[in-house]
Write a structure and sequence with these properties.
The complex is a heterodimer of chains A (about 325) and B (about 325). Chain A starts with a helix and ends in a 19-residue tail after the last helix. In chain A, strands 1, 2, 3, 4, 6, 7, 8, 9 and 12 form a nine-stranded mixed sheet that branches. The relative contact order of chain A is 0.17. The longest helix of chain A is centred in the C-terminal third of the chain and has 20 residues, at about 265-285. Chain A is of the alpha/beta class and about 325 residues long. Chain A has helices spanning about 1-20, 45-55, 70-75, 90-100, 130-140, 145-150, 170-180, 195-205, 215-220, 240-245, 260-265, 265-285, 295-305; strands at about 30-40, 60-65, 85, 105-120, 130, 160-165, 190, 210-215, 225, 230, 235, 250-260. In chain A, about 40% of the residues lie in helices and about 20% in strands. Chain B has a two-stranded antiparallel sheet. In chain B, about 70% of the residues lie in helices and about 0% in strands. Chain B is mostly helical. Chain B has helices spanning about 15-25, 30-70, 70-75, 95-125, 125-140, 145-165, 170-195, 200-210, 215-225, 225-240, 245-250, 270-275, 285-315; strands at about 80, 90. Classes of the chains: A alpha/beta (about 325), B mainly alpha (about 325). The interface between A and B is medium-sized, with 28 and 21 residues.
Chain lengths: ~325, ~325
């Protein structure tokens, strides 16, 4: 009986040790855990990178959470995570939290994202809107109820609003750009943290109008109509080209990862980040985002190599110029 | 007569600890065991009170800074609830309206369905059918609320959208109906118990006078069991008021005052979940709202409990 148990145990052990060695041994030597958390918008990119990285370095465990940009920073500033996904710049209070906890960060843009404003497939009149019209529709205390209230030649039917929830970075960004202050939004919209619910809502509601990340629009193109946004130079439809070149404005934004200098000293984190910067162009596009232009990517790689800390948020130059 | 005082007499005239020890001149093993058991049970009983008071204390302590920043009158009578949006407003009536709407729908559904189920079980059903029905009621009671919530969002709402096309993706009706389904076992079981407690003699007397089964059920059993049935309704409604998972998933997060059940609303419990799981910074007035509305919810369910006890005592017929 004892021998049988021993034999069973031995065969089990040898079986498990045989698994997992199917990858090229020369590049699979690193070990460790990398913990990443933050924005649900950046998540698809980071997760795609992590999956590819796992094929190259199978012994490194990369965990990617989706606590939201704010939630991710809360953990990052106290050193609980190595990298934070963010769909906005780091805020002042998060920077002071870093200072008081001795965390230093390297700010790395990874892709562009556009916010798509969408309407129901049967909506044939709302082809384009200006920022002023969006503001009239969405601002806190807005009395607008019908499409006609927004533009006189639109139908006199009530519209219905669908928006990401108040914890979402997309919500923060949209309200900041359209209503002037992050969080300024009328209260009678249907809010949901789940973008799939928003898609279902607008797709099923003839008078629906909503907004979410461009990637979700491309995935659900056949159920929704896109609204061209006029940011001052004519209506622009969001696409890879218009978001990447910045012409789709002001509803296009950069996505970031923030890496802690302490974490970067770990060999596996350094390897992961180098891999990230190399692959992010291809993978961002695969998951529906807009990759950074070549020259900017090269500059980001150089920024990482020089371990330049601090944020470029308050620099008074164009976005690209901050990194070149 | 046994000299051990612990076995005779009513609990009220139990001798105190010193008496127990002095009575026999020495501590018998039996009286020590009695003492220990009694202390253990007292601790358990008192802990209920301590925990309740503890919860109340924490709620009140965290609500005090909130009411320093927001006037209680504005809180209780304001009709705009936007603690997470700019500009911040703290009128709680939309949350109360949402809670009451869902509770009303649940109540309107469960009171007929639960009572009729109980009536059938106690007056018409054969013993064999009752044996089959009871386990199914147990199953309904045992389904996790998160599964109910998912069911409301992905089955009930699309079905409602076919029947009533203006039903929104989040709405009070789906949530209310599923909350009602969840509390059917409460009403059915408790009402059934109340009805079975009506003595056979009353029923037999009515049958003897030539009453039909329906006349006995509605004219004799139901009124006699009324206080117990009423108590079951109120218990079920208290549960509906405090229900969290189903409304969080299916009712929405739009704090608004409306009587249209096909629209998205937000209940007190749904709001508490939204803020607790979100990234609102601790210590801010927006965060403290969860304690203020928690206290309000506590007060509402306490009121319901007190009304329920009063009704039960007022209408009780003792046999």
């Amino acid at each position: 009986m004892r021998i049988k148990k021993l034999l069973a145990l031995a065969s089990l052990l040898s079986f498990t040790s045989a698994c997992g060695d199917s990858v090229d041994a020369s590049s699979g030597a690193l070990e460790g855990t990398i913990s990443i958390d933050g924005s649900s918008t950046v998540f698809p990119i980071t997760e795609a990178v992590a999956e590819e990285f796992r094929k190259v370095e199978p012994k490194v465990r990369v965990t990617v959470g989706v606590s939201g940009t704010g939630g991710g920073f809360k953990k990052f500033t106290v050193g609980e995570t190595d990298v934070s996904d963010a769909s906005r710049y780091i805020k002042d209070k998060e920077i002071s939290a870093c200072d008081s906890n001795g965390t230093e960060f390297i700010e790395l843009p990874v892709a562009y994202d556009g916010i798509a404003v969408i309407v129901n497939k049967g909506n044939d009149f709302a082809r384009s809107m200006t920022i002023a019209e969006l503001n009239a529709m969405w601002k806190s205390g807005s009395k607008a109820k019908t499409w006609k209230d927004i533009r006189p030649d639109w139908p006199d039917r009530p519209f219905r609003l669908y928006a990401p929830g108040q914890d979402s970075g997309t919500f923060d960004y949209f309200t900041d750009e359209v209503n002037g202050k992050s969080g300024n939004c009328r209260a009678d919209a249907t809010f949901s943290e789940d973008d799939n619910v928003l898609v279902r809502g607008v797709a099923g509601d003839p008078e629906g109008i909503g907004y979410f990340g461009f990637a979700y629009y491309t995935e659900n193109k056949d159920q929704l109509n896109i609204v061209a946004i006029d940011g001052g130079s004519g209506p622009i439809v969001p696409s890879l080209e218009t978001i990447g070149s910045g012409t789709y404005s002001p509803l296009s934004r950069p996505l970031f990862i923030y890496a802690s200098t302490k974490a970067v000293q770990k060999v596996e984190v350094d390897a992961f980040l180098k891999f990230y910067l190399d692959e992010m162009g291809r993978l961002a596009q695969e998951v529906g985002y807009v990759p950074l232009p070549e020259h900017l990517t090269k500059a980001i790689v150089a920024r990482y190599a020089s371990q330049k800390t601090g944020t470029t948020r308050d620099m008074d130059v164009s976005f690209e110029a901050r990194y070149l | 007569m046994s000299a051990d005082p612990g076995l005779t007499g009513t609990p009220g005239d139990q001798p105190g600890v010193p008496a127990l020890l002095l009575r026999s001149g020495r501590t018998s093993a039996r009286s020590v065991k009695e003492l220990v058991i009694r202390l253990l049970l007292q601790v358990a009983a008192y802990s209920t009170i301590t925990i309740s008071l503890g919860i109340l204390f924490v709620l009140v302590r965290e609500t005090i800074p909130f009411f320093a920043a927001v006037a209680p009158l504005e809180f209780l009578t304001g009709t705009d609830w936007t603690p997470l949006l700019e500009p911040r407003q703290f009128g709680v009536l939309p949350l109360v309206a949402g809670t009451l709407l869902v509770t009303l729908i649940a109540g309107l559904f469960v009171i007929p369905v639960g009572s009729l189920t109980a009536l059938y079980m106690s007056e018409w059903a054969s013993a064999r059918f009752r044996r089959v029905l009871k386990p199914f009621l147990e199953i309904l009671a045992g389904v996790p609320t998160v599964v109910y919530g998912y069911f409301a969002l992905t089955v009930v709402t699309p079905a409602l959208q076919i029947i009533l096309p203006s039903t929104r993706v989040f709405n009070a009706l789906a949530a209310g109906l599923v909350v009602g389904i969840m509390i059917i076992p409460t009403v059915a079981s408790l009402s059934d118990d109340a009805m079975r407690a009506v003595p056979r003699a009353l029923r037999d007397a009515a049958y003897g006078l030539g009453a039909t089964r329906k006349e006995v059920a509605l004219g004799v059993v139901f009124p006699s069991a009324f206080s117990g049935i009423m108590a079951s309704y109120l218990l079920a409604i208290s549960r509906a008021i405090g229900e969290t998972m189903i409304v969080s998933m299916a009712a929405g997060s739009t704090a608004t005052i409306t009587v249209n059940p096909l629209e998205s609303i937000q209940t007190i419990t749904g709001f508490i979940v939204q803020v607790s799981l979100g990234d609102t910074p601790h210590g801010t007035t927006s965060y403290q709202t969860i304690f203020a509305v928690g206290l309000l919810l506590f007060a509402m369910t306490l009121l319901m409990n007190m009304v329920s006890i009063w009704i039960r005592d007022r209408f009780r017929d003792s046999y």
